[in-house]
Amino acid sequence: MSSKTKIVVLRMKEIIYTAIFIGLGILLITLFFIMFRPKKEAAAAAADSVSYIPGVYSACLVLGSQNVNVEVAVDADYIRAVSVTSLSDAVETMYPLMAPAAASLADQIVAAQSLENLSYPEGSLYTSQALVNAVKRALDKAAAD
Question: Taking the model in full, what pTM does it have?
Answer without folding.
Answer: 0.64
